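name: query_chain
kind: protein
chains: 1
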Amino acid sequence: MSNLSSASSSVPSPLSFLHESIRSVFQDGPARSAGKFVALRQLVLDGRDAPVSFDSNLYATDVGQIRWNACELVAGTILVMASPCDRSQNRQALKFASRTLGGLPTMKTIDTVQSADLGKQFRAAKKAAIDGQVGELTVLGVNLVDVGMLERRQAGEDLEHTSFEHTFVLGIGREGFRMWSVWGGCEYQLDDLATPEGARLRDWDEGKEFLKTFKVLTSEMGTWSNDINKAYGTLFDVDLFDICGKDKRRPPVVPDYKPWVRIYVINDVKTTNVEKLKWYRNLEMVTK
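structure:
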């Protein structure tokens, strides 16, 4: 039996409101979603307030690069949407998943900072959601870092491998939790964010299984194994053995499996956080 708590039918919960807002942003397909991200990024970097104005004729310069970097696109957009109405916090949220903005960790950081405990953060968020008369929404940006690839990159060594690095976002509210995740160039996954089934609501039993699988993924070291690949596929719906290797779509997975986790936490996300952004296309309002 599901242990999801019932939410008011008249007033959407913060998690439901955020989810519907995310669906509206990504409902126009990968190219237009990438264009929205380019416009949002520029607004945040310029320190301006909403509305976010974008024009389908002005995408070309950046979209060719951004649309394939789906992790940055999705995580950056959602974390900014969930952030308070504060320019500095919006910039930090955008920076978290961005290599170009210097948000990704260095080896110095990894050597001095312990890998984050997603289970601990998830349980704290669940407690905040179900305690008290008003359940709080917590949004977590989760970055699974490929330390082996980072070592190769910083040493200037061969990069002809596929990285398992991935960034996704969790929303944890009173009624359960949702995960927004798009992997690499899988544009169909970006489209899925706008469907009723995309980022579906999961209950707390599923949360236990999710954390158990994530622990398997982040506790292993050595080489990419069947167990690691199975856990990765269960979490992110991507089979790296199927797409990576000789005569396949992508080069082999990086041989040194060294995972490290960092988490961006936004506590007590209000509907007003999300409402701060209004999207306009060609001077016509797209979403409110």
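note: The beta strands are 52-54, 138-146, 166-173, 176-180, 259-266, 279-281, 284-287.
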